[in-house]
Write a structure and sequence with these properties.
The chain is built from 2 helices and no strands. With 54 residues, it is mainly alpha-helical. Helix 1 crosses helix 2.
Length: 54
């Protein structure tokens, strides 16, 4: 598909209220999944206070 057809497709979906909600849910789920993937494996405890030794 050409870029113009993709734009027409997403514009038609975005004009529909339910389509817009669906696209936004997919968008935000992608962001959340990316953050979980990025930070999910690490330790989420706070680091030591930088001035602990003084």
């Amino acid at each position: 598909m050409s870029t113009k057809r993709w734009m027409e497709f997403f514009t038609a979906i975005f004009r529909n209220p339910w389509g817009r909600i669906l696209l936004l849910v997919i968008y935000y789920l992608g962001i959340l999944l990316g953050l979980v993937y990025r930070y999910g494996e690490g330790d989420l405890t706070a680091p030591e206070f930088i001035y602990q030794g003084f």
